[in-house]
Design a protein that fits this description.
The chain is of the alpha+beta class and 168 residues long. It is built from 2 helices and 7 strands; from the N terminus they run αβββββββα. Strands 1, 2, 3, 4, 5, 6 and 7 form a 7-stranded antiparallel sheet that branches.
Length: 168
């Protein structure tokens, strides 16, 4: 029995990014987007798909997959679905697979399952910027703007020519 190569598995940070991507896609598309983690030939992959409603007919051109069931692993929000016991028909969107290629750790697969992009960093293949850069403090920015306004008011007053006193 062979031991799986841990380099061909997603890190906790990568799993978090994939979960955030599924949640971001759900918000962007206005539909639940599921992200299921699987393994093929000792290399992990994640598939992104939209669950189909019971009475929903899938697009003829779309690839249909089944997601969920016992042992299934998901990242991100589950759209309120019981994915641990139930299997759902879904419309496949795209996937990311880890490779053992020394020039590309990740390969992105399009809606047809064909490789169309690759990168060493997962973030390069995701549709959203998921960096955790600190957001600017809005109170500090407002204070800076007020200080700039005060400085410009004072400089405008200094540039105005003197006025003669008013006579009543």
């Amino acid at each position: 029995m062979t031991t799986p190569d841990h380099a061909l598995r997603f890190t906790e940070q990568e799993l978090s990014m994939l979960g955030k991507t599924a949640d971001g896609l759900s918000a962007y598309m206005g539909k639940s987007v599921l992200a299921e983690i699987g393994m093929d030939d000792d290399a992990e992959w994640v598939i992104f798909a939209i669950p189909l409603g019971v009475d929903e007919t899938p697009d003829e051109k779309a690839t249909q997959v089944q997601m969920g069931g016992p042992g299934a692993r998901f990242v991100g929000n589950r759209g309120g679905l019981d994915l641990d016991t139930e299997v759902y028909d879904c419309q496949y969107l795209w996937a990311v697979q880890i490779t053992d290629d020394p020039d590309a750790r990740f390969v992105r697969l399009d809606q047809n399952g064909d490789e169309f992009d690759y990168a060493m960093e997962l973030a390069e293949l995701l549709p959203f910027d998921l960096t955790d850069d600190a957001l600017p403090d809005p109170d500090l920015e407002l204070l800076e703007e007020l200080e700039e306004d005060d400085d410009s008011d004072q400089s405008e007053q200094a540039d105005d020519p003197p006025r003669p006193p008013s006579i009543h």
